[in-house]
Design goal:
about 180 residues, mainly beta, Jelly Rolls, nine-stranded antiparallel beta sheet, four-stranded antiparallel beta sheet, 15 strands, about 45% strand
């Protein structure tokens, strides 16, 4: 039996910026002068944004980026875990977005509106060669009274390839593009 597929364990991250009120964040809005820095995931794959940046005074968004090198165009599935909001862009295209709220109760994802390594599974399309992966994570929290504020309970993200998609030639790479793959799936 092959070893389990590790989560993406190294990302580049940009500092938090105010979360747009009525629109999805777009990677086109990331300033070209942003100071990206390398951030490592915890042992379970969680990029703990609370630990990296501490609390924010108002709802904020953080951009993370990595890349996948594919030997041939193909569709793959990834597990995503996150708290509170997420937008996944693959090669500039919004591939997935969702909330993982605690309130209202009927909108909670498993487990009970909290972070889980597999809050959802998303199919992504990879082109032959290098593929840009951008993830925006927001800490917008809605209280049970309906007020909106920055989450007092933390925020973060984890991503890993689905086990059944292991075989076809995929390599995880960190930017800049000429960096050698850090993990081969």
């Amino acid at each position: 039996m092959p070893p389990p597929i590790p989560p993406v364990n190294t990302w580049l991250v940009a500092p938090p910026v105010p979360l747009p009120v009525d629109q999805a964040p777009s990677p086109l809005e990331i300033p070209s002068t942003v100071a990206w820095r390398r951030v490592g995931a915890e042992s379970d794959g969680l990029v703990n944004l609370s630990r990296e940046f501490g609390p924010t005074a108002s709802p904020a968004v953080v951009w993370l980026k990595t890349g996948m090198r594919s030997h041939g165009a193909q569709d793959k599935s990834v597990h995503l875990g996150w708290a509170r909001q997420i937008w996944l862009y693959v090669n500039g295209k919004l591939t997935y977005s969702a909330d993982n709220p605690f309130y209202p109760e009927e909108a909670r994802l498993q487990v009970d509106g909290r972070f889980d390594q597999e809050n959802t599974t998303v199919k992504i399309h990879l082109n032959d060669g290098n593929n840009d992966i951008f993830v925006a994570v927001a800490n917008r929290w809605r209280t049970y009274q309906g007020a909106v504020k920055a989450s007092p309970y933390g925020w973060g993200v984890a991503m890993s390839l689905v086990e059944t998609d292991r075989a076809a030639g995929i390599a995880l790479m960190l930017f800049p593009r000429d960096a050698l793959p850090r993990t081969s799936w």
